[in-house]
TrEMBL record:
Annotated region described as Disordered, given as residue ranges: 1-22
UniProt KW Membrane keyword: yes
GO CC annotations on file: membrane
Biased composition (Polar residues): 1-11
Membrane topology: Multi-pass membrane protein
Record keywords, A-Z: Membrane, Transmembrane, Transmembrane helix, Transport
Signal peptide: none
Matching Pfam families: MFS_2
Species of provenance: Perca flavescens
Protein name: Membrane-associated transporter protein
């Protein structure tokens, strides 16, 4: 068996159906399946086996996760060079915060709509991969303009004043486009994983995502920390920025391609009647009896009988809805039973979500706010507080040189963070049987809150670098635990719906994954608008670690009181 081969023994077997001409019961399950006491415990094949994805090999899951390595690699390059690049083209400091606000605002407003639209994409290539490909190309265009915009404008425009203006516009557009696409692409990637993997493989896939996210960030920070200007590549390509762009574009292009061809995706059929000549199966006996969270329309379903059996909708394996898109209207077999989601209906779906999902979104918002408070200003904290440098001093002064040294050491601290994130994502698998998902969620927030508190109390070089490991614990927690909790919530609900004889409401995993991702954008907006004011009022950047610690500890309390525990 090769590394990429599927586990044939794990492939589901089809359910035995009544012979033609025999009476078909109007109950949800066939009588030959209900008779077994082990039906719910041992066999999901009877009802859901026909559409349950097969077990995926480790090689395919790793190939699927490689996109997170490339994405985080490019993210790390942007984080390391966005300030010097923007300031080098003459961007006023008063406009700097605008760059960080445009992308999250757009993402918060449009992310659920894009995610929901992917639920209804009818491309022969699948529902998620076309969106991932387009967003991946936009990421490449964005980082190209970001790192090469100044050189391109200088080669085209000769007028000095116009050159400066156009360089600012092009570089800012590249930064915003890159952030926009890199933030958006996370939702379709997660939805792609949930669509093509069984429940057990989703957990494995998320762990590989977190592992390769940490490794990608570490490699990106290492590449950014090296002096490429005096190297052979720097002389060959023109400058340090061109060398870094070469590595970024090459890494992203290769790993995006590996991701897109890692696991085949089932396309959404345009005409279920024309495309499915197979005999009726048990899925055609399933009906939707109620509208719930994420459901937009409730269409009548005719009584089930031998002469009237609705065709199945493609099943959507979402974080919140793994058993939701199975039924269609018998009266309108060629139309979707669910309308496309508009911004209004999307907001209604999110507002009306069950309480335990809403609480999870709030805790995710608290966690990302705490994490971003620290990460966006950490290098500045190292330069001013730990090294006692001054960023506003003359560039040939000792104070400014000391500040630059602190920023460089801060980059190495972020590299430690990325490496510890990759390591902790592996350790999580051993801790899970002992403390559970809610315990892991609490531990991540608590460790981060205590670590940032100690950094604020004892801001010396060695202690700060050692405590950078807690950043990785928080990073790995935010990238994995909330999605695992949602998958577990849905698994419990799916089992309950089976027992009740109902398949539940129709919704797709695009909007489900986007609901959590929206909290990341909202956290960026909060940090971008509020933290700068706090730093100005306090007169010191030490407030960033205090704010991060406070928000994280609030998150611990919230998790303890409101997050639902799962076995």
């Amino acid at each position: 068996m090769t590394l990429l081969s599927e586990d044939q023994s794990a492939r589901p077997q089809p359910c035995r159906l009544p012979e033609p001409g025999k009476h078909i019961s109007t109950s949800l399950y066939p009588t030959d399946c209900i008779g077994s006491k082990e039906y719910y415990m041992e066999s999901e094949e009877c009802v859901f086996g026909a559409v349950e994805p097969p077990r995926r090999s480790r090689g395919r899951l790793i190939l699927h996760s490689m996109v997170m390595f490339g994405r985080e690699f490019c993210y790390a390059v942007e984080a390391a060079f966005v300030t010097p690049v923007l300031l080098s083209v003459g961007l006023p400091r008063s406009l700097y915060s605008l760059v960080w606000l445009i992308s999250p605002i757009l993402g918060f407003l449009l992310q659920p709509i894009i995610g929901s639209a992917s639920d209804y994409c009818r491309s022969p290539w699948g529902r998620r991969r076309p969106y991932i490909l387009v967003l991946g190309i936009l990421m490449l265009i964005g980082i190209t303009l970001f790192l090469n915009g100044d050189a391109v404008v200088s080669a085209i425009v000769s007028n000095r004043s116009l050159k400066s203006t156009w360089a600012i516009v092009v570089v800012m557009f590249g930064v915003v486009l890159f952030d926009f696409a890199a933030d958006f692409i996370d939702g379709p990637i997660k939805a792609y994983l949930f669509d093509v993997c069984s429940h057990r493989d989703k957990e494995r896939g998320l762990h590989y995502h977190a592992l390769l996210t940490g490794l990608g960030g570490a490699c990106g920070y290492l590449v950014g920390a090296m002096d490429w200007g005096h190297s052979i590549l720097g002389q060959l390509l023109g400058s340090e920025y061109q060398v870094i762009y070469f590595f970024s574009a090459l890494t992203w292009g290769i790993f995006l391609t590996m991701h897109l061809f890692s696991i085949p995706e089932q396309p959404l059929s345009k005409d279920p009647h024309a495309s499915d000549p197979s005999p009726p199966n048990v899925l055609r006996l399933l009906g939707s009896h109620s509208n719930g969270y994420g459901a937009l329309a409730k269409e009548p379903v005719s009584n089930v009988g031998p002469a009237s059996i609705p065709d199945p909708r493609p099943r959507s394996f979402s974080a919140l809805g793994e058993a939701n898109s199975v039924t269609s209207s018998a009266k309108q077999p060629n139309k979707e039973a669910q309308k496309r989601m508009t911004f209004r209906s999307m907001m209604k779906a999110i507002i009306n979500m069950p309480n335990h999902y809403r609480y999870l979104c709030v805790s995710h918002l608290l966690g990302w706010t705490a994490f971003l408070c620290n990460m966006l200003f950490f290098t500045d904290f190292m330069g001013q507080i730990v090294y006692n440098g001054n960023p506003y001093a003359d560039h040939n002064s000792t104070a400014y040189t000391t500040y630059e040294r602190g920023v460089e050491v801060g980059c190495w601290g972020l590299c430690i963070n990325a490496a510890s994130s990759a390591l902790y994502s592996y350790v999580q698998r051993f801790l899970l049987p002992y403390i559970g998902l809610k315990g892991l969620y609490f531990v991540g927030y608590f460790v981060f809150g205590m670590g940032t508190s100690l950094i604020g109390l004892f801001p010396n070089i060695i202690a700060t670098l050692i405590l950078c490991t807690v950043f990785g614990v928080m990073s790995s927690t935010l990238y994995t635990i909330p999605y695992n909790l949602i998958a577990e919530y849905q698994r419990k609900e799916e089992e309950l719906l089976k027992l009740r004889g109902s398949i539940g409401s129709q919704r797709g995993c695009g909007v489900d994954c986007a609901a959590l991702t929206c909290m990341v954008q909202l956290a960026q907006i909060i940090v971008g608008l509020g933290l700068g004011t706090l730093v100005y009022m306090a007169g010191s950047v030490i407030v960033v670690v205090i704010s991060a610690s406070t928000m994280s500890l609030f998150g611990c309390i919230f998790i303890t009181l409101f997050i639902r525990n799962v076995d």
